[in-house]
Design goal:
- The chain is α/β, with parallel strands linked by helices.
- The chain folds into 2 domains: 10-226, 3-Layer(aba) Sandwich (Rossmann fold), CATH 3.40.50; 243-309, Helicase, Ruva Protein, domain 3.
- It is 51% helix and 8% strand.
- The chain has helices spanning 2-13, 32-52, 54-69, 80-97, 126-135, 154-165, 177-182, 207-226, 243-255, 262-268, 273-282, 286-295, 300-304; strands spanning 74-78, 104-108, 143-148, 169-174, 189-192.
- It has a 5-stranded parallel beta sheet with strand order 2-1-3-4-5, sandwiched between helices.
- The longest helix has 21 residues, at 32-52.
- It is globular, with a radius of gyration of 22 Å.
- It starts with a helix and ends in a 9-residue tail after the last helix.
């Protein structure tokens, strides 16, 4: 047992997120204002880290686009803060882009209850990760995205290994890519976010969490745009499930049609803004518009041309 403890200390002690930030060496002696300012300055590194990882992040997004276009799924896997951020991203894809729940799955170490409460030991449970991946029958059409700030989370390592064995495309999003490689985490696409030490040493909900959130936003948004779920800068596949989203859908239809009754168009289009726009612009009924959109791969740009050359508000 002591030998195992020393080995783990060696692994975690070398992580960049576990080091003490020089500027925060006297953190407990700082005023609240000084702490806030220090944290704000340090958070700028989060966005810079994502920018530096732009190329692998873009390749990962293209892999997700291809998977979803081919009938596959986006499967997020993570533990703790990383897992919660992944689950948040997956949950937002349906209302924003009309993605079916079965197409975007988040597997969180410890299960759904870990979304709100820490589940002790869950991140070390490799058998649970393997069971979870097998339960959803992950396969060659899917993309599995492992999210781990530390890069050494056993749950994520086991999940990615299982996904690879089943032929899925794998992505690793981490703030410690070197540590991940040493720990045996392997992926087809590695997105390394080099944010450096945290203001509070080891607290990866800070810079690491922010960088992870930005990276996952970029990954899923770029993938959805690749699927034609955006026209101009508007979410034309929005699912209007509340008053705010209903109003947004009307504005979207208004933006790309002239002299049309947005409410009537949306009703005729089954609530789908993209279909409503195609109907109005091309003088089609719903079924005709849906067929034309299908032939265009769901992309209004391919059907109508660039949005910025069309109606201006």
């Amino acid at each position: 047992m002591p030998r195992r403890t020393r080995r783990r200390d060696d692994i975690y002690g070398r992580l960049p997120t576990e080091r003490v930030l020089d500027a925060a060496a006297d953190l407990d002696g700082m005023s609240p204002l000084a702490i806030v300012r220090l944290m704000a300055r340090q958070e700028r590194e989060s966005a810079r880290a994502v920018e530096r990882a732009g190329a692998p992040l873009a390749r990962a997004a293209q892999a997700v686009t291809a998977a979803l276009a081919g009938g596959g799924r986006l499967v997020y896997v993570g533990a703790g803060t990383s897992g919660r951020l992944a689950a948040l991203d997956a949950a937002e894809l349906r209302p924003t882009f009309g993605v079916q729940r079965a197409q975007a799955i988040a597997i969180l170490a410890g299960g759904p209850r870990a979304m709100l409460n820490a589940v002790e030991g869950a991140e070390d449970d490799e058998p649970a990760a393997r069971r979870a991946l097998r339960a959803i029958r992950v396969g060659e059409r899917d993309v599995c995205v492992g999210v781990t700030a530390s890069g050494v989370t056993p749950f994520v390592r086991a999940a990615l290994a299982t996904a690879r064995t089943q032929g899925a495309t794998t992505v690793l999003v981490t703030c410690a890519a070197d540590a991940a490689a040493r720990a045996g985490l392997r992926a087809d696409h590695v997105v390394g976010l080099r944010v450096g030490p945290e203001v509070l040493a080891g607290s990866t909900r800070l810079k690491a969490g922010t960088a992870t959130k930005i990276a996952l936003n970029a990954l899923s948004t770029a993938a959805m745009i690749g699927l034609g779920k955006c026209y101009g800068a508007r979410m034309v596949d929005v699912v209007a499930t509340n008053a705010k989203l209903e109003a947004r859908a009307r504005r979207i239809v208004d933006a790309y049609t002239t002299g049309a009754d947005a409410d009537a168009l949306l009703r005729a289009a089954g609530g789908r803004a993209k279909v409503a726009i195609a109907m109005a612009r091309l003088g089609l009924d719903r079924k005709q518009a849906e067929r034309r959109l299908a032939r265009a791969g769901g992309r209004l740009r391919d059907l109508l041309g660039p949005a910025n050359r069309e109606r201006r508000a």
